[in-house]
Amino acid sequence: MAQNKLNVLHWHITDSQSFPYESTSLPQMSAYGAFSPRQTYPSRTVRELSRFALSRGVRLLPELDAPAHVAAGWGWGRAAGLGELVVCAAQQPWARYCIEPPCGQLNPANPNVYRVLAALFHDMLKDFYDAAAPGSPAPYFHMGGDEVHLGCWNSSREVVDYMSRALGRPKRRKEDFIALWGHFQARATQALDRAQQALSQPGESATDAPLPDVDVEVEGNGQGNSVRRRREDADPDATTFPSTFLGVPDGDADNVDYPLEDRAVKVDGEGMPVILWTSELTAANVVEKYLDKNRYVIQLWLRAGDPLARDLVSKGYRVIVSTKDAWYLDHGFGNWKGNSTSGYGYHPWQVAYDNDPLAGLEGLPGATRQVLGGEAAMWGEQADQSGASTKTWPRSAAVAERLWSGSAAGTWTAARIRFVRHRDRMARLGTPSEAVQPEWCTQHEGQCY
């Protein structure tokens, strides 16, 4: 990334399939949720990576995706007396409840969800930001927010009843679930604010009462994955919360009577900026109702020319561009879901290079200021350590030049000789990079064009 002047690594560190991040406050998340004890990211490792990246001009940006894309790691709530943290977990047939398996969405009716989120936010802020640059303000936090499946919440009696009692919305229409989603987002952002306050003021806690210490033994690859052992082996410099829970009534967790929350939870423009993916919550006709433009940044995973980009910028929102049909580097490798072999088309470097992040925003006076930058996305459903690098490079280099040079970069035809040379230089320096032309063409410059 430093070779290409890319300065932010957005790390989607958890998802419904796995929770590999080892939270010092809630080690049960990775104990329940990681693929195996060996496939985790300890807090010490995250802090080392953050410092390493920053020394090269790259900032790590954590994403804790919510309320969708959660399943693995969240199943310990009932045993701890916290009730169900996730609804429709691993439900089948999955297509009725989520975009990809295993299904799961956070339970917006359970107040303990927000206390768990606050603890996780606290640990991530400390590991990703405070450890790398102590005392400096955290610039952004990515809260995901994409691909919420309203059918999942609609399948939960607890969620539907809460929506009726607490929000006064008993009809279960789409707009009612969008309101519930907005309510969740506001409370989740408040949890982030509490986490940030706890970091800045020693002695403060990100939760109103300590969360429970659940000791669970998870076997994998012949090794125990004990929460208690992880706590004993934890980095002594890591901050954790006390291990005694004081806030849940005695008795069956299913019978906990959660207090009604205020129907309108407001989040103002103060505090750390929160990034969210485009979704039904960011639609032009509802976004201003639920998301303060001074607080939220919208990451656009839209096709080129989608009018929503102009709508959001014209309303004053800051945006990050991730054009779906140009800068999604995982596209073009078939389909892994269901029985279809079709999938998105491959986007070669030429398409990535010619994608203008300001296209469609002509005439808007704030466009150059509100477009904070762009991001090439390399999702991991069909990529692991054996192939992720060649899918990422050298196409990300094309994205980098476009972002730094803008329209002055011209078109890909003017850049192709330089681009080939740059790709070869990256490969020689040890970065596995996909070939873009035959070696003969490289040795006989200009004879293949």
TrEMBL record:
Annotated catalysed reactions: Hydrolysis of terminal non-reducing N-acetyl-D-hexosamine residues in N-acetyl-beta-D-hexosaminides
Enzyme class: hydrolase
Residue ranges, annotated region (Disordered): 194-246
Protein EC: 3.2.1.52
Catalytic site: E147 (proton donor)
GO CC, one annotated term: plasma membrane
Domain of life: Eukaryota
Keyword Hydrolase part of the UniProt annotation: yes
GO molecular function: beta-N-acetylglucosaminidase activity
Keyword Hydrolase: yes
GO BP of this protein: carbohydrate metabolic process; glycosaminoglycan metabolic process
InterPro entries the UniProt entry points to: Beta_hexosaminidase_sua/sub (IPR025705), GH (IPR017853), Glyco_hydro_20_cat (IPR015883)
Pfam family, one: Glyco_hydro_20
UniProt domain Glycoside hydrolase family 20 catalytic: residue ranges: 1-166, 266-406
Keywords linked to the UniProt accession: Hydrolase
Family classification: Belongs to the glycosyl hydrolase 20 family.
Name recorded for this polypeptide: beta-N-acetylhexosaminidase
Organism phylogeny: Eukaryota, Metazoa, Ecdysozoa, Arthropoda, Hexapoda
